[in-house]
Amino acid sequence: xxxxxxxxxxxxxxxxxxxxxxxxxxxxxxxxxxxxxxxxxxxxxxxxxxxxxxxxxxxxxxxxxxxxxxxxxxxxxxxxxxxxxxxxxxxxxxxxxxxxxxxxxxxxxxxxxxxxxxxxxxxxxxxxxxxxxxxxxxxxxxxxxxxxxxxxxxxxxxxxxxxxxxxxxxxxxxxxxxxxxxxxxxxxxxxxxxxxxxxxxxxxxxxxxxx
Length: 211
Ligand code: ZN
Fold this sequence. Notes:
The structure is a single chain. The chain has helices at residues 8-19, 24-39, 56-63, 107-113, 124-134, 179-183, and strands spanning 2-3, 6-7, 46-50, 73-75, 82-87, 92-98, 139-145, 159-161, 168-170. It is of the alpha+beta class. Strand 1 (2-3) and strand 2 (6-7) form a beta hairpin. Helix 2 packs across helix 3. The structure holds zinc ion.
């Protein structure tokens, strides 16, 4: 049994090193990407879309050239356990989703997916065994065609310097960067002076403690 171009065991190894642990959703995600890849025409340049930020983006990044960083993987957060691989210019492609109607024969997968048991009552080994045995059987496929606005290449456009923070940002965001317009995630920001760059031996080195 293979997942993409890897053996099942090789894929588990990659999941552990990339994701940090053997997440059941990422193993199922591997089968999802594998199924979509098998349906795509050979040699097609495809992009990917995940409908949840949970687990599936990592399966795409492990098994395809599509990553968040290169812009070939997008996430639309509908909270649906589904992904699509599609031809990047025209947007026709294959969507694979976790099919609830196919979970009856797999009680451990069903109880994990619908959180019917607490984590401590879930038997991880039985769950992983069922996921491996089920493979593609818990998944369904659709042909899809994406709306053109989802096919647009991301573009930074013109760059401006924010008059408040002094950093470069996309000019289309307005007269200040979005962070300075109030969307910053940081409660506190303290400028640190790097010791190695500080030949004058200034005392202006502060430490932040995170508690
Ligand atoms: Zn700013």
